[in-house]
Amino acid sequence: MVDMTDLADVHIPTVLIVGAGLGGLMLGAVLKSANISYHILERAAEPRPLEFSIAISANILPVFEQLGIYEELKSVSLPLLTVSLFDKNLVHLGDFGGPYHKIVTGYDIQMLARPKLYDILHRKVPSYKISRGKKVLRTKEHDDRVTVYCSDGTEYDCSILVGADGAYSAVRQSMYKKLDEEGNLPLIDKEDLTIGYITMVGVSTPLNPEKYPQLSETDRSYFHVVVGDKNDSHYFVTVPDNQICWGIKIQLPEHEAKQQQFKNFEWGPESVDIMLKEYENFPCAFGGTMEDLFDTTPKHLISKVFLEETVFQTWYHGRSVLIGDACHKLLPGGGEGAAMAMRDAVVLANCLYNMSDKSDKSIKGAFANYYRQRYLDAEDKAKSSAISTRIMSGHLVTEEGFYRHI
């Protein structure tokens, strides 16, 4: 058994983080900066971040400055000024955003390939702080610690357990099982996630700027959304190194979405051949067809996943707490999912830093403070992300039922 409590000063909580995604890595980086002992368990044997674009804005960029990685982030990203919307014939319908974001906030929105962001954060966490191939089976709360049991037979003790392990969080499932047995789990937290969309994403290899002139403009990122004619939409984003991040999103009919209520390996590779074939002749907003982008994207880096949404009501219990998709899963239209996970990490780290000791009372107070600061923001971002996602799928706000599920 690995007993981590010996690694920390008596007045500093020892934190075990389950999940080495963006939220888990950010939490590790901030805890390191705060001199709080931590360790990360990751299910995957090798890093495999989602191959798509990600927007980082003023709501988290100051943290990158404080961690000393803001300039590195800017070196692998491009400022995003607007998101342009087109119909299937590439007729321009309008723009989102504008060039005034930096004037208002002091920061550009930085657009980059998600693996680049992952690499930056990963380098802030020493390799010995991450144990890979650790599939968590269950957790057990004790009076003064939490024990985590992994599928390889290893066990980990910690003072505080953080579930940063996604929408199907093993930490949350153990927490909810205990609460349910006690009769203390709210009914809303027993509901399945709402599945409304299927998406396929990838990042091309470096392309020729002569074929895609937008790549020649190295002072801004182009983000084009093309709306199809059957509740599908297509995304094209320019990022550094002459690469294009692309995505296809299909909205499922309500009856079909209900049939998709099963456990899936989110962001994991699945068979994509049928979907690739179906959309290979669809026009690319930057020129040519989707097939041109498919052919320049390594097949093993294309992911087909379900997009789900929910905001759980219960985020903590005992010495366990949740961040990111483990407690709020958002649709991608607002571009908020990763930023929300990283903001959760920063707020939680601040609350832990302010603890006077590792007593149950101090931990409960820290968790409650974290929840008060983050829950309403999660609800708000879930609603705005749902609205943005529907608009980018071609819906009009005047449509009947537009706000029914928001």
Question: What attributes does this structure have?
Answer:
single chain; 406 residues; alpha/beta; ten-stranded mixed beta sheet; 20 strands; globular
Draw up the topology in text.
Layout lengths: L1 E2 L11 E4 L3 H12 L4 E5 L10 E4 L4 H6 L3 H6 L2 E9 L5 E6 L3 H5 L3 E5 H10 L6 E3 L3 E6 L4 E5 L4 E4 L1 E4 L6 H12 L12 E10 L17 E7 L4 E8 L3 E9 L2 H6 L13 H7 L10 H6 L7 E9 L4 E2 L2 E3 L5 E2 L7 H17 L6 H33 L14
Parallel strand pairs: 1-11, 2-3, 2-12, 3-8, 5-14, 12-19
Antiparallel strand pairs: 4-7, 5-6, 5-7, 9-10, 10-11, 13-16, 13-17, 14-15, 15-16, 17-20, 18-19
Helix pairs in contact: 1-5, 1-10, 10-11
- With helices defined by DSSP (H or I, 4 residues minimum), what is the helix count? 11
Unreliable stretches: 2-13, 261-270, 396-406
Number of strands: 20
Rg from alpha-carbon coordinates = 21 Å
Q: What structural category arises from helix and sheet content?
A: alpha/beta
Distance between the termini: 46 Å
- How is the biggest beta sheet arranged? 10 strands, mixed
Q: Indicate the overall shape.
A: globular
Share of helix among residues?
Answer: 25-40%
Per DSSP, what share of the residues sits in E-state strands of 2 or more residues?
Answer: 25-35%
Mean pLDDT: 87
